[in-house]
Design brief:
Arc Repressor Mutant, subunit A, Oxidized Rhodanese, domain 1, transcription regulation, Rhodanese-like_dom_sf
Length: about 220
Amino acid sequence: MPIQAYLCEQLLVECAELGRALGNSHRVNIIQHLVQKEFSVDSLAKLLKLSIANASQHLQHLKRVGIVESRREGKLIYYRLSNKPVISIFFSLKQQVDYARKEFRELVNQEKILDDENCYISHYELIDALRTQSIMLIDVRSIEEFNNVHLPGAVNVPFETFEYYLALLPKNKEIIVYCRGAECFLSKHIMINLRLKGFKVRQYKEGISAIKLFQ
């Protein structure tokens, strides 16, 4: 086989291996967390509600295809994303999934739903709204993350269970949703879905990453 053809075939094999590594919801969830910062195996296992052995197995799979890298600190092993192209791959996949979903196809025809002026709340607006108690502030991260740290005045409605709480949400009061930060898509997804259902809702994009501004 000519060397050029061989290299092309190897590239396709490696792309397929990368695809297989991403073909697991736990591993995609791991990447979503590592987009924000590095985590120890123990911390990721707790966040994902996996055994340490299972979390470690998923991380090793991601490491074999070059998605993550690790470092040891004492008895703990920390993982982080290996390079910026990994982040681009993750968000490209998410964008494709978003586009394929019915509500996001509707969104394309309703550009006002993502109008910058109406969709996002600034830090100072949020502070004023919390002081006057004119909003409902919702943290859509996991219970464990919320219990560890959350913005003042927030209530926790985890992303995975949000649909079950729709009947309890007020339609006569503005809802503000937030998650891990600007790169986290959870609260944006919730904001879009609630707007399509007629709720008055905005996103606080900075999310928990801005916790120091509230201290």
